[in-house]
Design goal:
The protein has 3 domains: 127 residues, Roll (CBS-domain); 194 residues, Beta Polymerase, domain 2 (2-Layer Sandwich), CATH 3.30.460; 144 residues, Four Helix Bundle (Hemerythrin (Met), subunit A) (Up-down Bundle). Helices cover 52% and strands 11% of the residues. It is built from 17 helices and 12 strands. The longest helix is centred in the C-terminal third of the chain and has 27 residues. 38% of the residues are buried.
Amino acid sequence: MAEESLFFRPIKDFCQRSVITCSPDDKLVQVAAKMRERNISSMVVCENKLPSGIMTDRDLRNKVVAAGADPTTLTVRAVMNSPLSAIGENDPLYEALYRMSRQGIHRLAVVDGKGKLSGIITDSDIIRLQSHSPHQLVLDIEQTRNLEEVRTVYARIQELVLHLSSGSGTSTRDMVRMIAHLNDQILLRLIALLRAERFPDLPERFAFVVLGSEGRGEQTLLTDQDNAIVYGNELDPEQIARIESFAQELSDALIAIGIPPCPGGIMAKNKEWRRSLSKWQEQLDRWLQAPTPNHVLSCGTFMDIRTIFGDSSFEQELTDQLYTHVQRDKLFLMRMVENTLRFVPPIGWFGKIKGEKDGEHSGMLEIKKAGIFALSEGVKALAIQAGQLKGSTHTRLEALVKNKVINRKMAENIAESFDFLVLMRLRGQVEAVREGRKPDNYVLLDRLNMMELGRLQIALKGVEKFQEFIKGHFNLHLLR
């Protein structure tokens, strides 16, 4: 098994099983003495046999010593951190890395299916596993000092994906999530370098956001720029000019490291994708009130909004505006779903999959148009209606089940079809890179064996079934 695939094995294979615990009502000095005796830097706090918090050396230093408190009068409850960040023992190891990085913490409690403590895992445990890994890539990204070093590390992301695609057993969902996380880290590092070198004076009231598949965290090897900027209404012309310069240099830096510009121009360096909050609210109203096909596509891309850097309150205000509008006017969502139905899965007589008839892509299947778009956009429409837009297509499906919009079986069928189509897309892109071709969304049908063709047929029929469901759910028969 490839070394990198360790990060996609369950956490239970690597976590420390012997965990010293205490009660929140234990005396602080006694617990501190036990920590010294066992030479450990933290103590998991359990209440009613369930992990409820954690106390670390840092808590003792900051909350007791530095605060001048009398430790003999305190219990653990007074200094512990609660609630405790925990992760399931069957989750992949990479998820632990992602959560630690995202939350800025160094350890996670590991729990079983009943929520009971079964171990603990720290960032040191992960680092010891190997140096050539997704985790090492994150560390190397953070240590880059200039554009050339970022470009070199970014190229290694592609190399890692190619390696993991060679029979490592890594799931498509884990692979896509890893790509998205590493791309986020690249973007954040470029922003940090630009701010340190050229833009230390950027105003606080602005946000750099990513959109479309990048906003959903569903990128594969075919990655271009989909981003925008939102800034406060109160900023003066000089502050806006600085943001404009920053956006242009950031976009140019992304191009320089190998991330091409968006063919449709959806980039913060373009004025129409760089607006004040009020101007974005006006633009959103125009899209929603006149749901032409172009407006539906633009709005759909924009509403996958995710804040990478800056003030995240703008994202929430714009999302709330969308929710409010669709509650009183269903037309936009109906047009959005109608637009997805134009992408009919190419299945002919007896379930035969139809590829392109002629041209350079003759015999190939455009996998995004064949099914990925219909699934991701259809789920998005349901998520907008339910007010549950955050996250990936999978996250949205979970929210839809929780809110009883769809049942668990339907969600699993949609997810299975979606994952297989994304796998086909990613595999086709990997093949293209290895053969020196530019990666795209086309799949060579004649390279698929009978089992793969059968699974592809099932996935595309799953798309058809989902389209029938949303057609009825949104009452498209009422449209004229």
